[in-house]
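Methods — Computational structure assignment.
A single polypeptide chain was analysed. Its primary sequence is given first, followed by the predicted tertiary structure written as structure tokens.
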Amino acid sequence: MRERTQFSRRDFLRGMAAARSHWRRSARPGRPPPRRLSLMLTQCIRRYADTRHALAPLRRERERVRRVRAYPHDNYAENVTLAELADLAHVSPYHLHRLFCQEVGIAPHRYQTQVRVDRAKTLLAQGLPISQVAVETGFADQSHLTRHFKRLVHVTPGRYRVHKSKNVQDGTH
């Protein structure tokens, strides 16, 4: 990997201004910019652009995030810490949090909560009591489940269960 080129903003702007003034002096209506201008712009971009090549590390990082995403599905009832997930991915907790947010769009803890609520929906549809569902899905108590369930599903677990049982009785889904 090449390191990022350090440059001053003033130098970059001077280079771009020089290229622009050269193009204005030599531009002809209906004709593309001269080859020299293209070369100057290419040199300017090569000199000042961020030249890091990150394709290989991206695959490795995606694999790490994939492993971390799979873990809460298998261990939704456990209180999994960021440090445990970071050990699983072989990176620091800070780096994992940044990678996960970049790749998935939400923080690992919020993802774990979504997995738990999805599992709770399945258990509620089977007719289990809300308090039992809360314990089996790793929430501290029924109110903890209700708070997160309502935030994500926009109905309380009780209404969700009633609605699902009516749909099952009617034969609709």
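Note: The two ends are 52 Å apart (CA to CA).
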